[in-house]
């Protein structure tokens, strides 16, 4: 087993913001370490650039740094109130992601699908058929 330090983007620090932190992982290859890191909690899973850096470290550094990492309360918070109380620990590593504010359709949240379904002719057919069946019976 080899030891890796993986720098990733963590979420839950505000809209369009990310926390740049480290995960310490044991794996066979850098690629496998990156996959393990991407599946960890709080990591931005939907971002292609969630993994910023993967570097191999020695055993002693791995255990010392992972112990320091466990002392950060951000990773052990269960709710937003606890996270706000320990935000001072990570505030220097929180960065803004400006590219998320694009007007692309991929990043626009659809709040209601009702209009989309009401404009669909198949939905209209089934809606009317259901009403007809209710009145016939």
Give an overview of the whole structure:
It is a single chain. With 137 residues, the chain is of the alpha+beta class. It contains five helices and four strands; from the N terminus they run ββαβααβαα. It has one domain. It has a four-stranded antiparallel beta sheet with strand order 3-1-2-4, with helices on one face. The longest helix has 16 residues. The radius of gyration is 23 Å and the shape is globular. The C terminus is likely disordered.
Short description:
The protein is of the alpha+beta class.
Largest sheet: 4 strands, antiparallel
Q: If you compute it from the alpha carbons, what radius of gyration comes out, rounded to the nearest whole angstrom?
A: 23 Å
Approximately how much beta-strand content do the residues carry? 15-25%
Count of β-strands? 4
| Content-based structural category | alpha+beta
Mean pLDDT: 81
Q: Indicate the low-confidence ranges by residue numbers.
A: 133-137
Shape descriptor = globular
Count up the helices: 5
Helix proportion range: 25-40%
Count the domains.
1
Sketch the topology as an H/E string, one letter per element: EEHEHHEHH
What are its keywords?
137 residues; alpha+beta; four-stranded antiparallel sheet; 5 helices; 4 strands; 36% helix
SSE topology:
Blueprint: E1 2-10, E2 17-27, H1 30-38, E3 51-57, H2 59-70, H3 80-85, E4 94-96, H4 114-119, H5 121-136
Antiparallel strand pairs: 1-2, 1-3, 2-4
């Amino acid at each position: 087993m080899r030891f890796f330090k993986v720098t990733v983007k963590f979420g839950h620090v505000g809209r369009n913001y990310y926390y740049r932190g480290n995960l310490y992982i044991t794996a066979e290859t850098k690629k496998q370490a990156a996959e393990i890191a991407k599946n960890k909690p709080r990591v931005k899973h939907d971002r292609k650039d969630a993994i910023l850096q993967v570097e191999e470290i020695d055993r002693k550094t791995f255990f010392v740094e992972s112990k320091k990492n466990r002392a950060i309360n951000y990773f052990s918070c269960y709710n937003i109130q606890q996270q706000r109380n320990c935000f001072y620990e990570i505030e220097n590593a929180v960065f803004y992601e400006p590219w998320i504010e694009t007007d692309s359709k991929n990043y626009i949240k659809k709040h209601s699908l009702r209009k989309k379904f009401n404009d669909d002719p198949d939905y209209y057919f089934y809606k009317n058929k259901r009403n007809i069946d209710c009145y016939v019976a």
